[in-house]
Structure formats: structure tokens, C-alpha cells
Amino acid sequence: MLSQVYRCGFQPFNQHLLPWVQCTTVSRSHCIQPSVIRHVRSWSNIPFITVPLSRTHGKSFAHRGELKHAKRIVVKLGSAVVTRGDECGLALGRLASIVEQVSVLQNQGREMMLVTSGAVAFGKQRLRHEILLSQSVRQALHSGQNQLKEMAIPVLEARACAAAGQSGLMALYEAMFTQYSICAAQILVTNLDFHDEQKRRNLNGTLHELLRMNIVPIVNTNDAVVPPAEPNSDLQGVNVISVKDNDSLAARLAVEMKTDLLIVLSDVEGLFDSPPGSDDAKLIDIFYPGDQQSVTFGTKSRVGMGGMEAKVKAALWALQGGTSVVIANGTHPKVSGHVITDIVEGKKVGTFFSEVKPAGPTVEQQGEMARSGGRMLATLEPEQRAEIIHHLADLLTDQRDEILLANKKDLEEAEGRLAAPLLKRLSLSTSKLNSLAIGLRQIAASSQDSVGRVLRRTRIAKNLELEQVTVPIGVLLVIFESRPDCLPQVAALAIASGNGLLLKGGKEAAHSNRILHLLTQEALSIHGVKEAVQLVNTREEVEDLCRLDKMIDLIIPRGSSQLVRDIQKAAKGIPVMGHSEGICHMYVDSEASVDKVTRLVRDSKCEYPAACNALETLLIHRDLLRTPLFDQIIDMLRVEQVKIHAGPKFASYLTFSPSEVKSLRTEYGDLELCIEVVDNVQDAIDHIHKYGSSHTDVIVTENEDTAEFFLQHVDSACVFWNASTRFADGYRFGLARLPQR
């Protein structure tokens, strides 16, 4: 049972250890001698947890995506993060949010350490209050109330403020961490504690013991006794860094404790290539050693001892010591509530320090290249754009063997990892490539007036005309899953319309996408616009790409409905052209032709079940049950090895029915089909509107009036009479092939 908070201070084994360690727990305890603590496996009411988050220290993470494997993490809270805007008192809401995030990570089994500022600000608040109270009493006694407004607060010495604020700051942290059943311990250090070998070993041992007991160490420079700042020369070396501020303290602590990640929170988003706030300032996503010459450092923050230059130098020192570093904004109200957890999850937040430069351009650079190349592409003559597409179509057939070899590698690597429908989408064949080439040539033929076509011309006044003209959208981001044939299709459409293009394919199709992109750029090269189409090969998360609102004008997701929903949720200020699921229906009317039904059902379901226009639900008029037509349909599906799921009404007619469907709103994407019984055409329409996705729906009947009623009342993109659902295809419509899922 939880009780009041007890506080125990103890001197470590060696009397030379200067840092005072203050430890708090939410369970009833007494002061424990160090020798006893050595055997304790649980310090708070949370058991000691061992989580498989281990790695060999010595080399920093190369990519953001690897940060999720960080086991030991130091979070440095700058003065601007901890203090209020008036520099007198703490930003309690922000601090509570940070404590919550640290607690979440700690409870995941990570080892969290805090390096925090704030003692001076907290002490300043307390001392000001005491001075005002004291002055008000004296002046009230001697001068009357009218002179209270003229009271002046003397300049407060920082060391005195720190001495007054350290206990209050720690008490605040204790109260906050207690809400998450986490124990915290305060450690105050000075530069001597790192440079004296005996003290350094003792400090190291104390920190390791606290981490072992699932306690969060809260470390700060002992500002009450800290000596004046030393020269900056030590930062030029690789072995020594003086503790002059909390930036250098965090870096020294991170290397000393062999931490995996150091998160430095400040009041700016990270590093910029020019002064933040200027028109052309761009956030530097990844910073490499040696890049500091290209960065202009501004002034330090409104509070605190260090500026951004000090942070960068400390970060590079920690990076060289094997600790990954991220500098990010801890004050922005929209992100501060999840900035720490976002960084650990590998999201693109702040500036990530890395020793490994990628072989190719960054995604930001690719976005700039796509925009520049797209603008050049838009200036080409229509015949030149068509020539590029024709050349790409020729390359698909000429380089068929190389493409299929790359695709074979993808299929081999995906075997056992992907479901059968996804494997079918991933697979390329000679017939698919031939079909692709035909579709691309059709796009080329129909693209002559895609750009620059006058849609409307209005005479506003004499000698003044207004024209509405088709123009490119700009830069498109197309994200697609398991469909390498989508790449040349989308590229051809972008080329025809003069748009720059960023492509992000699934990693399962990496080999296929790579060669198809190379062929696309080879085709673009004939008119000098090679960079208009870019393939994102870096470890960019889709969510990070969706934040590039200054580079991308439209996002088009091509994949599952879940992918579309995720992208719509993640997109920040960028329009998303999404789509729904392909839950296609076929209604077999009581007056359907026996000869047509089985052929249409077979083509709709079995020809390519992974496509978005494949049949998913077959609606049967109740009068057809137990008729030869119904038996023929079932026999055909059995021969084609289609798994049947019975709808509720269909199951009620059967003594021994197939497995009852779990949901009538299911896109199987495989040789599976739901069969349901309806009473009439209106019942079929109601079912389609309730469970369909407005993609493609079909009626099979010889009654023209029934067919016309169905065509007029079904609200879907494609509504057919006596045709396969697979007919819903741009190529078959003569509109040039559009990508199918």
C-alpha cells in the first residue's frame, strides 16, 4: 500500500565522492546503507524489468530508425525549456509533459537519465517572493501603503538562487515522477567530479547502481558552488570536455555512462542552415561532423549559459564518444507533449547527428530535384514528353530479363513473409511487362494536350481576355505497396502531365523498383530531365514524408485502405488523393442468362483476385437457390479453388454451410468470395450501399428494365450490366491504363 514519500540521503562508499545523492520512493522505506542496496532488485513499487533493448556500445546509430533500439538515454532539458517566459519560475505544464514521456520510456524497460536546468529560475522565484514580502512589511511599517508600488527588487546572485531553488526543483520532480510510480534521485556535480579519477569512478558507480534499481537519476551542475567558466579550448580535443554548462555536462555524462542516445531539448527546432526565422532558413535534418563550417550560429537562448554553438560542440563530442545525439525543440506547444517519444520512435524531429553520410541525396534534396526537373519537364513540347514515355515502354521489353531477375530476388526474399495476395501483386511476368508497355504507349498517345490545353476563354473587356489553361500540379508523392508495375505507370502519367514525382515503394519490392526507376531516368535523359522522377530509397518513414509540405503538392497513396487512412492522418498541410477499398459486388438476377453468369463470375473473381476491381461479394436472387444455375456457379468456384464465405441469409438456407462471413464489408484480395442471398433488385441495391465501397458493382440479367433500375440507383464509380467487374480499368476504357492496387 502506498504511503507518504520518504526521503533518504546517503554518503557513498568512498568519502571522496562529492555529489549529494537524494533518492525518493513511493513505497514505505528507511534509509538504507549502500551495502544493503547492493542486493535490492526492486526500489519502487514497480518490479525491476529486463527488456530486450540491448546493443554493444562503441558506435553511434547511423540512422534515425535505429533509435528505437536505444536502451540507455540521457535527456537534457535546457533552461529555456524548463523556465517560464518571464525567467522567474518553472513551466510546470511543459515539465509535467516531459516527466510523463520519460516515465513511459522508463516503464518500457529503458534506462532514463535527466540533466536538468531550472534551479536558478526556481530559486529566483522563491527569493523574489521573500524579498517582496520582507520589503512590503518594512515599508508598510515605515512608509505607508502608497509606496509599495515603488519597491525595487535587487539583482539576485545566480549561486544564491541555485542554492534556494535546488531543493524545490527536486521536490517538484519527485512529486511528478511519483504519479507514475517511478523513483528519482538527485545528483549534483561539478567539473572536479569528472576530472578527479577517484570521484569519477565513484560517480560512475553510483549512477550504475541507480539505473540497476530502476531509478531515474536527475543530474545537475551544483550551481551554488560552481567555479567560473573555463576557456573553451578543451572542446577542440577528443578526450576531455569541461563541465561549464548543462550541455557539456550532458555530453560528458552520456559518454561516461556509455549511453545510446542523448536528446538535447532547447527552444529551437534544431540546426538551421541560416538564422532561424529568416526567409530561406531550412532545418538541417541530419548533421555530420565537419558540417559546422556551413552553419551560422546565432546568439544563445534568453536564459541559460550555453548557446547553439555550445550544444553543437557538446553533441559532436558525445557523437565521437559513441553516443547518438538529437537536438530538438522542447518548448513548442504542439510537439513538446510527444517530442521525446517521437525521437525514440525514429520520427523526423529536430536535427539528428550521424557519423554516416548516406550514399545518395536526402529526401529534401530529392524533393528539390523533382521540383526543378518537373518544371523543366513542363516546358518540353508534348511530342518530347510522349517520346520519353515511348522510350520507357521500349525499355520495359528490351530489359525484360534484367527486370524479371530483380523481381525474382524480391520474391525470394518475400517468401514466407508476405501473404499470398501480396506475393501475387509483387510478382512480375513477361505478360505483365508487355501489358505495361502497351498501356504506356496509350498514355503517350493521349498526352498531347495534357499540358497547356485551353479549357475556357472569357473576354472580360475590349482587348482583355482571361484563359483557363491546364498546368502541372507540381511535385507528386506517390506511395505504393507491393506493386512494382505501379512505378512505370505512375511515372508515365507524371511525365505526360509535366509533374515532378517522388516515389516511395514498399521495401518488399526494393530490387524491382530500383531497376524500374533506373530505366525511367534513362528514358527521361533523352531530353535532359532525368531528375524529374525520384525514388526515395532512404529510411524515411511515410509519416515523415507527409510532413514535407513545402516540397510536395499532392500525395497519392496506392495500396490498402489502411495505408490510405494512415497517410490521410499523417499528412500535414498536403492534399491527399485517397481511394476506398475495392469491395465489388455482382448481383445475379432471377432472369440472368445461364451462359453469361459463370463466365462473368469466373473472370471477376479468378482472373486476378488481388486487383482492386476483383469480385468480393456475389449476391444471388433467392429464386435461384437450388437451381441448376446456382449449382453451376458453386461447381465452377470449387474447380477454381475459391473459398466460399456464407452471408447470414445464405447460411440460414443451408443445413451444412461454409464458414459464415465475419464481415460483409471485406476485401479479400485472394481466391475467397462471400455469397449472400437477396430478395430482389432493391434488396441488392440496399446491400451494396450498406456494405460496398462505391468502386464497381454489376448486375447480370436479361431484363432491361431491371438492369436500368440497377444502373440508375447504384451509387458507385462504375456500374455495369452483364460485364465483369474487371472491366473497371482505364486501359479497357481507352483512357490509358491507370494503376490498379
Structure description:
The chain has 741 residues and is of the alpha/beta class. The chain folds into three domains: 64-137 and 156-222 and 242-353, Acetylglutamate kinase-like (Carbamate kinase, 3-Layer(aba) Sandwich), CATH 3.40.1160; 365-570, Aldehyde Dehydrogenase, Chain A, domain 1, CATH 3.40.605.10; 584-727, Aldehyde Dehydrogenase, Chain A, domain 2 (3-Layer(aba) Sandwich), CATH 3.40.309. The protein contains 25 helices and 22 strands. It has a ten-stranded mixed β-sheet, sandwiched between helices. A six-stranded parallel β-sheet has the order 19-20-18-17-21-22, with helices on both faces. Helix 12 runs antiparallel to helix 15.
Q: What layout of secondary structure does this protein have?
A:
Layout: E1 6-10, E2 21-25, H1 34-37, E3 72-77, H2 79-82, H3 92-107, E4 111-116, H4 119-142, H5 158-178, E5 183-189, H6 192-195, H7 197-212, E6 215-221, H8 246-256, E7 261-266, E8 286-287, H9 308-320, E9 324-329, H10 339-344, E10 351-353, H11 363-379, H12 382-398, H13 400-414, H14 420-426, H15 430-445, E11 454-461, E12 464-469, E13 475-480, H16 486-497, E14 500-505, H17 510-524, E15 533-535, H18 542-545, E16 554-558, H19 561-570, E17 584-588, H20 594-606, E18 615-621, H21 628-639, E19 643-646, H22 648-652, E20 672-678, H23 681-691, E21 696-700, H24 704-713, E22 718-721, H25 730-733
Helix pairs in contact: 4-5, 8-9, 12-15, 12-16, 12-17, 13-17, 15-16, 20-21
